[in-house]
Amino acid sequence: MNHLSLITKREYLNKVKNKSFIIMTFLSPLIMVGIFALIGFLTQLNNDGVKTISVLDESNLFANKFENSEHTKYDILTGLNLEDAKQLVRKAENYGLLYIPPAENVDAIADKIKFYSEESPSVGVMNTIEDKIEEEARAIKLKESGLDPVLVSKLKIKVRANLETFDGQKTSKVGNYMKLIFGGAAGYLLFMFIIIYGNMIMRSVIEEKTSRIIEIIISSVKPIKLLLGKIFGTTLAGLTQFTVWIIIGSALMIGVSAFFGVETSQGPMAQQQEELIKQASQNDEAQQMFTTIFQEINNMPLANLIIMFILFFIGGYLLYASLYAAIGAAVDNETDTQQFMMPIIMPLMLAIYVGFFTVIENPHGMVSQVFSYIPFTSPVVMLMRIPFGVPIWQQLLSVLILFGTFYITVLFAAKIYRVGILMYGKKPTYKELYKWLKY
Amino acid sequence: MSDILVAENVVKNYGDYKALNNVSINVSKGSIFGLLGPNGAGKTTLIRIINQITMPDEGLITLDGEPLKPDHIKDIGYLPEERGLYKSMKVGEQALYLAQLKGLSESEAKARLKYWFDKFEIGDWWNKKIQELSKGMAQKIQFIVTVLHQPKLLIFDEPFSGFDPINANLIKDEILKLREEGATVIFSTHRMESVEELCDDIALIHKSNKVLEGKLTDIKRQFKKNIYQVGLIADNKAEAIQNLKENFELTDATFKSLNDELQFNIKIDDKLPANQLIQHLTSKGELTHFVEVIPSVNDIFIQTVQNY
Which pairing describes strands A114-117 and B3-14: parallel, antiparallel, or unpaired? Predict the structure, then answer.
């Protein structure tokens, strides 16, 4: 076996066999899903109690419109004045008192409605109540102006521009959100991966330095091979962890949603979906929304996104990993790395900000375009742009620039690495690092 | 004897600092070659150049007549002064890995490791992690890894540091055995008594220059000052001393003896043969002790470095 594959294998096995790595790999998805489940559970728990809301409607326009629901009970008070009602509600420890004053017309009421409660009421409750009153008020007003509410709702026209590219690809606003989610997730994932695994490489270099094995190794292999083997091995370990996460994560997600699915709509996934569609078909708007989402996901250049994700993933990671390794070689311990981390973190943060602000605003704007070619930001920015449709040649050009930069960077990193791994004692300055490049 | 390693006019600069200035050494096949020098003299730089860890700026190094090339790595075994192992890796796995990096196949490496582990009676360490071993134990593993691929040239930098006297002896015997089997050893140390004991040839590097090189015996001859240690039983000590001082240069000396005698060092010039001196001495009293003072490596080291 040649040196590079030997080193890669060792680095890989060393990472993968590490206990904390194994625990992290198998536990994180469980923790993630567990947290989601917990949040879901807690939210349910939070809303579990039935809230009793007393209603004192002196206008007599709305009282009969409040229907009890699963979590809310309406207690209609009659024949009381406001002060008595307040005291009563307070005594009964009800959630709150809705007071609708008497008025001759609906408009006059609008600003005078009051809600009394011990603590400030939840937004959800208030929205429900306000919606109900608004709906009823509108109906009353329509009636007053002699219009038939049924007719009005029939006459209502909803305009939704059907977006289409010149190539005939249909897009929509919903689709844009989906693209944002996909692109954003891909970019952010890459960002996290670079930071986590970059640090891992850096620690591994520092470990070799502090354990003083480095000189034994590099009397057998060229430093650049050690550097590359380390980067490749860690990359593979990362990809392994990633794959496991995706497999476990999606299995768990399916499992959990199926579990909750059983509770809510009494049927396994497929059935549930059918039901959803059936439900949706009762409602034009929802149905359209539902189908658009699926259409949009299908319309998105998914294959393109996945392939490019892998390419940018590898390229971007290799680029940053070689820098992390150079930093690891330059210092003696992890606390000394701080001053050198800034130049690495900055472009990454910039990429994320450009991605989440500029690309969302205008995926093909000047800034977005430029940053999707700069190798230190292109992996994140380009990935975010791809769902919005970027010509293949531009993507390939960006990948090419990225890998070209990696090649140059790794040569420089190797120089710093080669000198740094044999330097002990003091923390080097940037000036010294520059001098090392010339050794 | 032919030279296995020749370094010619090697120059190495680190920025403005000259780490090696035109250093040449010749290491003859089958010898133990002591590479000496004060801290920071440039020994480690030279060793790293021989190991192709760093490249020289100028000069040529040949191994067995060929200029150094990457393939030579398998012909050299190097035990650096700053040495360690992966702490969380198992002993056996680690030894196998390092052996494979030196070009051994996995099965070959396993067989040879078994031989050495049996020899040092450390077979039960195979599945232990390095962090569970003591420093001396880890050093043994490092020694095995250094010699496992049976290199022609072995370079040991302070090989005995960290060993107790028993293990140091064990390692010393192994080094001598390896030499008998045909290996050449470059040996860098600050422990002069081991140089005295082991080395055939030495080179002394000081302030980036080679200041001394040659056979240890030749160098000693070169440094000897024609001084003899003398024990003399004289009836009248004061008179005898007085008399000798007129003709010779005397210095104080003490050595263990059962007699109550005069003890001193006497220096003669090259023209006077030793037996004439003996005649002269015996005329003054009974001669109990007459030994030529041979300079120790320690003396040579200090003298050379201080006078440079």
Answer: unpaired
